[in-house]
Amino acid sequence: MRRRTLLGTLPTLAVFGSFATSCGGVQVGVGASALAAEAGERLRIDGSAFELVRLAGPLEHPWGMAFLPDGRMLVTERPGRLRLIDEAGRIDPRPIEGVPRVWARGQGGLLDVALAPDFATSRLVYLAYAAPLGNGAATRVARGRLDGHHLADLEVVLTADPPGSGGRHFGSRLVFGRDGKLYVSTGDRGEMDRAQKLDDLAGTILRIEPDGRIPDDNPFVGRAGVRPEIWAYGIRNAQGLAVNPWTGELWEHEHGARGGDEVNVIEKGANYGWPLVTHGVDYSGLPIGRGKTMPGVVDPIWVWTPSIAPSGMAFYDSDRIPGWKGSLLVGALAAQMLVRLELDGRKVVKEHRLLQYEIGRIRDVRMGPDGLVYLLTDAADGALWRLGPATG
Ligand SMILES: [Ca+2]
C-alpha cells in the first residue's frame, strides 16, 4: 500500500486508484473499506524504520479516544456516537447507547472521552460535548457507567455557560490531574472578549471534582462575580490538554487566529492573554490586542506562526520508539501532520514535522498502553491509525 503517494496530489490519486483497481488490489483512498487493520506501510522517520497502520475506519469525524483496561478503545464520532474498537481494529457495529444528545453543528458535537482514574472499579466514562442550550450551545461534561453497550446513570458534571449561538471554539479536552481533579478546556465560542471575563466559563481551563463539585482550593473560590470552576483563563480554543508525566504539570495547546498557535504550561489562576496579547493577527490581517506579551500574562513556551491548527496532545513516555521518550506529540488539522517536540524541561529543543499530508487532518494523538502512537484523522471517512517501529 502506498498511501503516502496516493494522498500526494489528485492526479496521482486518480492514476493510482485505477492502477489499484486494475490489479484487483486493495480498496484505497476516499471511501476506503470498513475492514479492520490493513497491512502496514513502512516509512522512514529521522532515519529509523516505522510502520504506519490504518487500524480502523471509516469513522465519521472521530474526535477523542480512550484505552480501556481490556485492550479495547472508546472513540467518539462528532455527530454523536461513541464506538468500541477492539485490538484488531474491528469497530463494534453497535455504538454505545445512553450518550447525551449533542449539538452537532459546525465544530460542535460529541468531542472528547476520558476514563475515571478508578475506572477499573467505577466503570465511569466522561464525555465532553457541545450541548444544546438556550439559543445555541455550550461545552458540557457528563459521566456515565459503562455497562456492556450502555452508558448508565448519565449525569452532567459541568456546563461551561453561558451558551453561545455560534458553532466555533468548544475546546473540550478532558484530563485528570495527579490531584485527582478533572481539568476541562473550553474555547471562547468565537466571541474573543469572553476569554477575559471571569463570570463566564468560555475561554478557560476549568477544574472540578470528578462528581462536579468545586474544589475548595480553586483560585477564585469565594471571589464575588467570578466563576469558581475557573483554574486559568485568557484561552482562545484549547484542543490539547495533557499532564506532563515527568513533572505533573498541566500542559495545554490552543489555536491562534491567523498565526499564534500556542503551547502553554498551565498555572493556577493565571491569565494566558487572549485576546489582549497574541502572536497572531485577525483572519482579516488586522492586529488583535496590544502586542505579543504584557505584564500579568503568562507567555507561551512555543508558538506556531503560520498556524498549524493543533488538536490532540500526548507526552511520549515509553522506550518502544527509540529516541522519542521525553517528547511532546501534537496533531495538526490544517497542516495535516504529527508534530514531535523534543523537550528539555519547559524548553522546546527541536521540532520534527512528521507524516505531513500523508493521512490527512489529525484530530487526536495518544500514546497507547503498548507504547505505540495512536492517531485519529478528521474526515467524514476518518480513521484510527497506529504508528510504531517497523517490525520484522
Ligand atoms: Ca496566550
3D structure, described in words:
- The protein is mostly beta strands and 392 residues long.
- The protein has a domain at 96-307: Neuraminidase (6 Propeller).
- 5% of the residues lie in helices and 40% in strands.
- It is built from three helices and 24 strands.
- It has helices at residues 3-6, 10-22, 119-122; strands spanning 41-45, 48-59, 62-67, 73-77, 81-85, 110-115, 124-133, 136-147, 150-164, 174-176, 182-185, 204-208, 230-233, 240-243, 250-254, 261-266, 302-304, 310-316, 327-332, 337-344, 347-354, 362-367, 373-377, 382-389.
- It has a five-stranded antiparallel beta sheet, with no helix packed on it.
- A hairpin with a 4-residue loop joins strand 23 (373-377) and strand 24.
- The protein starts with a helix and ends with a strand.
- 45% of the residues are buried.
- The model is unreliable at 1-35 (pLDDT under 50).
- Residues 262, 272-274, 300 line the site of calcium ion (CA).
- Calcium ion (CA) binds at residues 262, 272-274, 300.
